[in-house]
Amino acid sequence: MREQLESEGREWPSPKRAWFAAGMLAAANTLAFVDRQALALLVQPIKEDLQASDTAMSLLYGLSFTMFYVLVGIPVARLADRANRRNIVAGAVFIWSIATALCGLARSFGTLFVARIGVGAGEGGLSPAAYSILADYFPKERLPAAMGVYQMGIYVGGASALVLGGFMASVVPPGSLVILPLIGAVKGWHLVFLMLGIPGVLLSGAMLLVREPQRMGLAGTHKSPPFSELAAHVLRHWQAYLGISCGFALMILVGNATGAWIPAFLERKYGLTTAQIGGIYGTITAICGVSGTLAGGFAAAALRRRGFERANLLVALFGFTALVPVTTLFPQASTATLSLALIGTMNFLAGFNFGGGLAALQEITPNRMRASVSAGYMLMVNMIGAAGGPFAIALVTDYWYGDPAALPNAITIVCAVASPLSIAALLLGLRGYGRAIKGTI
Prior knowledge:
Helices cover about 80% and strands about 0% of the residues. The chain has about 450 residues and is mostly helical. It has one domain (about 10-215, about 225-440): MFS general substrate transporter like domains (Growth Hormone, Chain: A, Up-down Bundle), CATH 1.20.1250.20. It has a two-stranded antiparallel sheet. Helix 4 packs parallel to helix 6 (about 110-125), helix 11 packs parallel to helix 15 and helix 12 (about 275-305) runs parallel beside helix 14. The relative contact order is 0.16.
């Protein structure tokens, strides 16, 4: 592939420029997950303040965010396949940051729900464009490592939200009143969202330092193809695309389901405070999640360089399999210490899967289809994972058990169903991926 690109006068960007772009995109992904995870930390105080049920809070965490993420993601991705992707990322960061700050002005469940829709609308423009950019900055043997760095933002962002939110909760309790100039009286949890909007506005401007790369990779397309051509390509390799997307969607269902409810679980079962949860759980998420994403991405890249063609998904398959016992056992742990140790292991294993899995998706996709295919992947991930996970646990808690104290059992049931199904889906994807990379594209 390198020979083909060089013969056309195109060469891969320098490693320095490529890793700068990866770092900036990882920073954007970090902020996205700061804004997302902050709500999970504040579930209990918001629920009490707005008099909402677990099911209503799950809709606030999942469905409100997913609605416009889904609606915006596809058209923005089609635009990203023919326009400047860097500018799309910068605009997306600005929009969701303003919407996050607006969450801090919400006085009712309805207005908070609408503000969360705005957050989803902004974040819908990030990942499809970011995946496409990275695939044009890094050749296939280095792409898994770059994807791992980008996905590191999930854990850095989630941990930052927990640690910073926990610290702010220790200084200004979430339920206390604070008087702000021009705004007036707000609760402590409002203040968290208001503060989180500031860094994103600054980062949106800094994103302009990233250069838009030339379109690289699978050749032959110099403009965005019609939808019929895109659909034909995906159908030709349906096993790979369906298996990878469903496998990761189910894994993320487990991740989002647990991530949304772990703070409430730790409070209800072990009596930890919001400040304690933010500090302890946030630190565990940062260390274990970041080390997992880096380890998995670089492991897949190393194996790929040594000639293992299917290394990207084989690494993910290991992580998927190891997650099954960990996700089902941590809610049943007898002590908070044991549960947190298993939660740390879960974060490491979940992160371990991303670099190779996302690189595999980009590798089998022509360059002018990458953002669109990524948007389809994100559509499935968000409909099944982001919206379905928190909602599934809330339904089991509210309507099966009818008791908030049964949250640990609800987490175990959802994970025991979804985790094995993710392995089955990924095995289908592995079969199709093996065929695609043998030159059948």
